[in-house]
Amino acid sequence: PRHMVADWSFGIRDADMQQAVDDARGKGAKVIIVLSHNGMDVDLKMASKVTGIDAIMGGHTHDGVFQPVVVENAGGKTLVTNAGSNGKFLGVLDLDVKDGKVADFRYKLLPVFSNLLEANKDMQTLIDKIREPYQKELAEELAVCDDVLYRRGNFNGTFDQLICDALMEGLDAPLAFSPGFRWGTSVLPGQPITFEHVADQTAITYGTVTRNEMTGETVKNILEDVADNLFNADPYYQHGGDMKL
Predict the structure, then answer these.
(1) Number of domains into which the chain is organized
(2) Which of 71, 92, 113 corresponds to the end of one domain?
(3) pLDDT tens digits along 151-206
(4) Is the dihedral of CA 201, 207, 211, 212 positive or negative?
(5) Which of 51, 59, 58, 65 is nearest to 18 (CA)?
(6) pLDDT in tens, 229-243
(7) For residue 88, what are the domain limits?
(8) Dihedral pair phi/psi, residue 28, rounded to 5°
(9) What are the CA-CA distances from residue 168 to residues 58, 108, 111, 204, 217 (Å)?
(10) What is the pLDDT of residues 63-89, one digit of tens each?
């Protein structure tokens, strides 16, 4: 509510970023790396407007960018990249700096195979202790998967569709909306679908299920608003979110 954040405002502030970069350069910084959670498109636009940034290593849109995009601006060039999501990759950027400038670079997405890494014993013990009271419920098998269930794009994946089909059947509704996340653990054909898989997909901060009456105009406005948040031609107006189903 506005009354709770009366003095707050939100936006992509080019001038503030430029001032921060200039201040850092003025204090002797030879290389400027920005860690961003703006999203790939926003970072590309910012790189074209703000000078003095050598590289932007970003997130939010979960893009696995295998080689940086080189963006030219009034002051030179900026590398823009994004290392996917959920710890699947580590973005590794090596810079060759000569005379206070980046002369060359080497970049790669380093895959992280978590199943091949030995767990930290103390952390694993803590996780097991927290999960133990709920383990029986989490392990309950609800069904067997016929096809790959996944949520990996801005639009609906197969797990999104399963959730919406269940909502329509369970609530006797002709339509169901659910955010199309890039989220959760995929389930392979022939693999049991456990309660943990369902919780994995639905345990979000706004996971409340409601049944409401809407006009066709309201449905249209909701979908167009979400589409605008995602695909506005000006990246600075892309507020995030995912297409609803």
Answers:
(1) 2
(2) 113
(3) 877 777 899 899 899 999 999 999 998 877 777 789 999 999 999 999 988 887 66
(4) negative
(5) 51
(6) 888 999 998 876 666
(7) 2-113
(8) 105, 5
(9) 37, 44, 38, 19, 20
(10) 889 999 999 999 999 999 999 888 889
DSSP for 134-160, please give it: GHHHHT-EEEE-SS-B--BSSS--HHH
Whether residues 88 and 40 share a domain: the answer is yes
Question: Both 101 and 182 in a single domain?
Answer: no
Is the separation of the CB atoms in 80 and 47 below 8 Å? yes
- DSSP helix/strand/coil, 215: coil
Decide: 138 and 194 in contact? Cβ < 8 Å.
Answer: yes
DSSP state of 182: B
187 contacts: CB under 8 Å, gap ≥ 6: 145, 148, 149, 150, 159, 193, 197
CATH code at 56?
3.60.21.10
Task: In whole angstroms, give the CA distance from residue 123 to residue 125.
Answer: 5
Using the 3D structure, point to which of 84, 113, 142 is the last residue of a domain. Answer: 113
Return the amino acid letter for 115.
Answer: N
Separation of first and last alpha carbons in the chain: 27
**Is 242 inside any structural domain?**
no
